[in-house]
Prior knowledge:
Layout: E1 27-32, E2 35-40, H1 44-47, E3 53-57, E4 59-61, E5 65-70, E6 73-84, E7 87-93, E8 103-107, E9 110-117, E10 122-127, H2 131-141, H3 159-162, E11 170-173, H4 185-194, E12 197-203, E13 226-230, H5 232-243, E14 248-251, H6 252-261, E15 272-276, E16 291-295, H7 302-311, H8 313-325, E17 336-340
Parallel strand pairs: 1-17, 3-12, 3-14, 4-11, 14-16
Antiparallel strand pairs: 1-2, 5-6, 6-7, 7-10, 8-9, 9-10, 12-13, 13-15, 16-17
Amino acid sequence: MRVDEFDFELPPGLIADRPASPRDHARLLAVDTDGLRDKIVRDLPDLLRSGDLLVSNDTKVIPARLKGKRDTASVEVTVLERIGLATWTAFARPAKKLKQGDLIRFADDFSALVSVKGEAGQVTLDFQCDDATVLHGLERHGKMPLPPYIRGGKADEQDSADYQTIFARQQGAVAAPTAGLHFTPDLLERLEQKGVARATVTLHVGAGTFLPVSVEDTDDHVMHREWGSVSQATVDAIATTRRNGGRVVAVGTTSARLLESAADADGSVRPFDGFTGIFITPGYRFKAVDVLMTNFHLPRSTLFMLVSAFAGTDQMKRAYAHAIKSGYRFYSYGDACLLEKSHES
């Protein structure tokens, strides 16, 4: 499938650099058999049904971006994935002059050794401390790893709260599961009063999630992998929902990708603990997810391909054209849409 089928023009002014305030006042485009309806996130209880199950991602974004020194030269690194005791993969810039054995100092008591230098700025860092101290050091010295389309990736103190969802519990993500950013305690209480149950999964979102696809054909794309977990409690909640005629509502593409990774051919979901690199494009048959709440995504991205697979490519092109014309805000801090699964998916 040609990647340029998923391209579109987005005016730069529609890229959000701060979230809506309050969070649940972001706009929400309902995309279903009734067409396109302009709502706000606070309307969600009116759009869901009693007996539905809301499944959110409880990953917690770590302050993964660090500034340090190699001798007297400045270096910025973004840690990506823990691969051993106090050992993480990372992107470094500028990486050209970095070499194996270099020591990068982030603070007097926090440093890392470059043990491997890979391609395209990727390095392996061995932190000079015990494993638990790495996360503590990141909390003290790191910044939120904002994607480059938000204020050039430069995070401030406000982003420490803004770029974290209300569901965040399990440390490990280097990008936020952005659909979850719209939820507030009041909205969750109103959903509970409506009879919408809740469950969580964990998918530690990686830096590759939001990148546009650089190849010309989807068959040539190598999907990044991310670690995830689906508990027995969530499996049981899904089974109960199905048995009672309710729908599984995934909050975000991360939750959807993980649920589909854990689903059998008959649609039953099993406990899951491991890595997934599932790549969903039109033609995929969704087994676990009935409704998807998600933000507006980048052109040529795997996420726009996923929502096109879920709701139909033509339908999503109409929805995005409407959103652009109507001034919806895009990407991580932007507005959201609520998608009903196409009969074809």
